[in-house]
DNA sequence: TTGTAGGCGTTATCAC
DNA sequence: GTGATAACGCCTACAA
């Protein structure tokens, strides 16, 4: 039990009524300068702090926004969270983070937690919650989504074009002379994963190349699966000169798998990721990847949400995925003399 | 404005009083089975959800705990946050994360935010907030700290022995035959940093080796500073055969710096980090480092805090730092033939 | 401009 | 067991 100073005591100390004290604290309304000072003085003296719970009940606004993320320690969403935090800075709203771990039931209970608080608005990061549920929630409070597309709420969904991003990777590799590009995909249930795979296929098709099932393998977006994927690909015996992973984490795993086999990147094998995690600048070699403006999207989501809370209209925003060419990709054949076979 | 179903409506629908409805919802007290069922039915029918704000006001407990972290996207604290989340699971308490970014004023306002909500308890992760302030807060509500030591509150501070951890690194390197061990430290204002430096010095002393200023350089715990540190060390012209970084992030940077110079790890140079970030298993080569049980500490912090909330006594807990020997360290001289000079 | 009083949704304290 | 009713701390008409 936290027996705090209440507005009542402040008012008494300042010799004014609670309402006057309230007005001073809340700011907006005009109050006589002398009384205002008296109140502020009392606040300082007593160390008063507005009880946001009480204010929330009285005003009907909790001054908190719910953020449904999938993993609080995810390097990918971490950047988005940072952007959201930044965007909320100084707005008076506090973020309330809950994690869904990509499991529908867990997301559902996390959403219930947020609705039960209740929060004034929500930002949804990815996840598998059905569109219907989100639309339902959006009817009751401002809702923004990052990294997913909700049919009917397109304007409040912040996404990058994963198809295009994946295309640009393939094009880059093709330009470097690679024709046999292995693909380590994400879980097919995941929208980003399917979009990126689609980009890979489309770019190959555009280049007049056949899609080869034998070059594709499915991972789960985690490092270990990238490692295993490389092992599997090598065991298959099909030849390839570049690997494209559907995200950076799997690319890290793939990198290690190649390292274990003594296959050099990029001399023997080009490697590309997707996401441009903070770490990708510092891998050895730095990873060619696709940068999504995750921080910016978090920031934009927060700002758009604040607009909605202020009943201002928000319009659709587009974010571009940008290919970051670093040192994990190289022209095919340039170092052919030192090249080892990638066949096992 | 979220016009929600209220207890009142539920009670009316169930044909009972609000008090009875409240009792059913809250659980504890006994209620006639038939009325209980009627209430639960009404809850389902109307889709009632307890308003935690109102409950908080009435009960004096907000059922939320404040977590002061430094960076919501920090890979190090991320693990702790995950542990805390897990530890709170099913307890009814929700975590409220705020970030201080290692800046005293920002931490102070973050703490104010938490106190103003108000939260029922707090967990402090690192930071530079003065001990006095934390002690002051701890008098009003249960408080646990991870990664810092508050004089007078030792029992509620979860830490690992950084000195010992750093010692074990040096010992490992000495055993491998390294005598010239460069050290990339963290900011001196940082307690973990000074402890680790102390461990480095102490281990050298114990081994009868002189401490060489020229082998030590100060970074800021970020990757880029590790890269710069390697550059500086090489420019100094002093020779060394191993690098010990005060955290993994700087070790990543150092790794890249060495890579750029064509210095191989571990053939030409052994490299050790500290923290065992999730990524360190997947760098090339996997990094020898010191594992701190961060997830476990987060979990333990949450559990201890729940105990305190239940007015149960908590006792001091000790966590051990464990040297994880991986592939970035090797015996000196073993690959001497292929060795390049590390002098520039 | 200021104060009084009612209400926000729930829990807690009483009687019954 | 159950049901009125008074808090909880604040905001906000409404009246002065």
Automatic annotation (TrEMBL), chains A, B:
Residues 5-59 form the HTH lacI-type domain. Pfam families: LacI (PF00356), Peripla_BP_3 (PF13377). InterPro entries: HTH_LacI, LacI/GalR-like_sensor, Lambda_DNA-bd_dom_sf, Peripla_BP_I. Keywords: DNA-binding, Repressor, Transcription, Transcription regulation. The keyword DNA-binding applies. One of its GO terms (molecular function) is transcription cis-regulatory region binding. The keyword Isomerase does not apply. SUPFAM superfamilies: lambda repressor-like DNA-binding domains, Periplasmic binding protein-like I. This is LacI family transcriptional regulator.
């Amino acid at each position: 039990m936290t027996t705090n100073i209440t507005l009542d005591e402040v008012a008494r100390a300042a010799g004014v009524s609670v309402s006057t004290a309230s007005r001073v604290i809340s700011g907006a309304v005009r109050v006589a300068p002398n009384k205002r000072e008296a109140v502020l003085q009392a606040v300082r003296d007593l160390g008063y702090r507005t009880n946001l719970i009480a204010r929330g009940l009285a005003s009907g606004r909790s001054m908190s926004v719910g953020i449904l993320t999938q993993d609080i320690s995810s390097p990918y969403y971490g950047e988005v969270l940072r952007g959201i935090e930044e965007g909320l800075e100084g707005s008076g709203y506090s973020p309330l983070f809950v994690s869904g771990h990509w499991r529908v039931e867990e997301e559902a209970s996390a959403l219930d937690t947020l609705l039960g608080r209740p929060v004034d608005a929500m930002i949804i990061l990815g996840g598998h919650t059905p569109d219907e549920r989100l639309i339902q929630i959006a009817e009751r409070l401002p809702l923004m989504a990052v990294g997913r597309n909700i049919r009917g709420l397109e304007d409040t969904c912040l996404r990058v074009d994963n198809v295009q991003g994946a295309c640009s990777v393939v094009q880059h590799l093709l330009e470097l002379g690679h024709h046999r590009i292995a693909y380590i995909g994400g879980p097919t249930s995941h929208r980003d994963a399917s979009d990126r795979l689609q980009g890979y296929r489309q770019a190959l098709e555009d280049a007049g190349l056949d899609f080869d099932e034998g070059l594709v393998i499915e991972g789960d977006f985690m490092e270990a699966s990238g490692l295993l994927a490389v092992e599997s690909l090598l065991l298959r015996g099909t030849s390839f000169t570049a690997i494209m992973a559907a995200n950076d984490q799997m690319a890290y795993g793939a990198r290690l798998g190649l390292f274990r086999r003594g296959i050099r990147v990029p001399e023997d094998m080009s490697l590309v990721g997707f996401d441009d995690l903070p770490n990708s600048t510092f891998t050895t070699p730095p990873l060619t990847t696709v940068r999504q403006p995750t921080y910016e999207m978090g920031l934009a989501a927060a700002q758009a949400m604040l607009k909605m809370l202020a009943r201002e209209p928000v319009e659709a925003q587009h974010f571009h995925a940008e290919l970051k060419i670093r040192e994990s990709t190289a022209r095919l054949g340039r170092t052919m003399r030192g090249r080892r076979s990638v066949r096992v």
